[in-house]
Amino acid sequence: MFNDITTLLLHPKAFKGAIDILVDRYRHRDISVVAGIEARGFIFGPPIALAIGAKFVPLRKPKKLPGEVISEEYELEYGHDCLQMHVGAIDVGERVLVIDDVVATGGTPPI
After folding, report:
1. Where is it predominantly found (predicted)?
2. CA distances (Å), origin 18, targets 7, 13, 58, 82
3. Which CATH number fits domain 5-99: 3.40.50.300, 3.40.50.2020, 3.40.50.11690, 3.10.580.10?
4. Vertex 89 angle, CA 88 and 93, to 5°
5. What is the pLDDT of residue 102?
6. Which candidate, 73, 43, 68, places its Cα nearest to that of 58?
7. Which residues pair with 55 in a beta bridge?
8. Which residues, listed in sequence order, are joined to residue 71 by a DSSP beta bridge?
9. Model confidence, pTM
10. What pLDDT is attached to residue 110?
């Protein structure tokens, strides 16, 4: 069964509640980076990052980011794909929370 998040976004109290649950779960875990996978990670990632005092790093499909990027290719059940981020966006030793819609599509790689 597939449940799209757009109905959640239409209800500010419910959307805030979902963000608050994630913030409460990760607030005291020393996370310095929230990385959001295109595109739903861009909806949930920034408010979580702001609330826990972390920076936000977008993880995008190829050729979407300006400047120098690093890439990670991965296999899907129906092919392959790739994510990119800016070089230097995450420093060695930083703790990263990755926000994705993996429940909806199962398309991005496991961490």
Report:
1. cytoplasm
2. 12, 9, 20, 28
3. 3.40.50.2020
4. 85
5. 57
6. 43
7. 33
8. 84
9. 0.85
10. 52
pLDDT attached to residue 52 = 98
Question: In this structure, what is the dihedral angle of CA atoms 17, 3, 41, 68, given to the nearest 10 degrees?
Answer: 180
pLDDT tens-digit readout, 34-76: 999 998 899 999 999 999 999 999 999 999 999 999 999 998 8
- When pLDDT is cut at 50, 70 and 90, the band that residue 78 belongs to is confident
Kindly provide the b/e burial profile for residues 36-52, where b requires at least 16 CB atoms within 10 angstroms of the residue's own CB. Answer: bbbebbebbbbbbbebb
Token pair, residue 31, equals: 């996370």
Q: Where are the domains of the chain?
A: 5-99
CA distance 60 to 89: 13
